[in-house]
From TrEMBL:
<keyword id="KW-0560">Oxidoreductase</keyword>
<dbReference type="InterPro" id="IPR004313">
    <property type="entry name" value="ARD"/>
</dbReference>
<feature type="binding site">
    <location>
        <position position="101"/>
    </location>
    <ligand>
        <name>Fe(2+)</name>
    </ligand>
</feature>
<keyword id="KW-0479">Metal-binding</keyword>
<keyword id="KW-0223">Dioxygenase</keyword>
<keyword id="KW-0028">Amino-acid biosynthesis</keyword>
<dbReference type="InterPro" id="IPR011051">
    <property type="entry name" value="RmlC_Cupin_sf"/>
</dbReference>
<keyword id="KW-0533">Nickel</keyword>
<feature type="binding site">
    <location>
        <position position="99"/>
    </location>
    <ligand>
        <name>Fe(2+)</name>
    </ligand>
</feature>
<comment type="similarity">
    <text>Belongs to the acireductone dioxygenase (ARD) family.</text>
</comment>
<keyword id="KW-0539">Nucleus</keyword>
<keyword id="KW-0963">Cytoplasm</keyword>
<comment type="pathway">
    <text>Amino-acid biosynthesis; L-methionine biosynthesis via salvage pathway; L-methionine from S-methyl-5-thio-alpha-D-ribose 1-phosphate: step 5/6.</text>
</comment>
<feature type="binding site">
    <location>
        <position position="105"/>
    </location>
    <ligand>
        <name>Fe(2+)</name>
    </ligand>
</feature>
<feature type="binding site">
    <location>
        <position position="101"/>
    </location>
    <ligand>
        <name>Ni(2+)</name>
    </ligand>
</feature>
<comment type="function">
    <text>Catalyzes 2 different reactions between oxygen and the acireductone 1,2-dihydroxy-3-keto-5-methylthiopentene (DHK-MTPene) depending upon the metal bound in the active site. Fe-containing acireductone dioxygenase (Fe-ARD) produces formate and 2-keto-4-methylthiobutyrate (KMTB), the alpha-ketoacid precursor of methionine in the methionine recycle pathway. Ni-containing acireductone dioxygenase (Ni-ARD) produces methylthiopropionate, carbon monoxide and formate, and does not lie on the methionine recycle pathway.</text>
</comment>
<keyword id="KW-0408">Iron</keyword>
Amino acid sequence: MPHSLRLNSDCKDKMVQAWFFDEKVANPREPCQLENVALDVVEALGCKLFKFDAANKSSCPNLAKIVKDQNYNFQDEITVSPTTLPDYEKKVQMFLEEHIHDDPEARGCLDGSGYFDVRDKNDKWIRILVEKGDLLIIPAGIYHRFVPDLKDFIVAIRFFEGNPVWTPINRANNEENIQNMPIRQKYLASL
């Protein structure tokens, strides 16, 4: 069973689960669980997880505070499932491409569940399960990816500061260029 983590949570009874990713498992939508990951390891990577009332998002004080504190001024929602997302399998493969962004990636789970994988300091994958009421902020410059779990259903709210931009810079065939990018250098210096 994965280790449960409490990250920046105002909801003391709710926990998030994270573990090292088992790359030997053929289907990345499975849990792919290895050993537990300690809270300080995840926090040291710059990841933040908040809890919010997904059923009452428009009146949730925790969510309003996060949005204000992070200067988010734009949000949208996406449903990731075979029935709602055209070319579902192709999109899932795109989400699974390891990449970075110039800006932090903030995603709240309104329903369903899925996995965000982030690279640790030793370039190992850490898998973070996001479920209804979790809001994960991944720092700019960290290698990461997303995949729905075996239920193939997640409704996410995406938050942006400024104009919404979602431009992944894929690691494959770009690693040398990425390592020299200012955002990657800034991220590495923060470790």
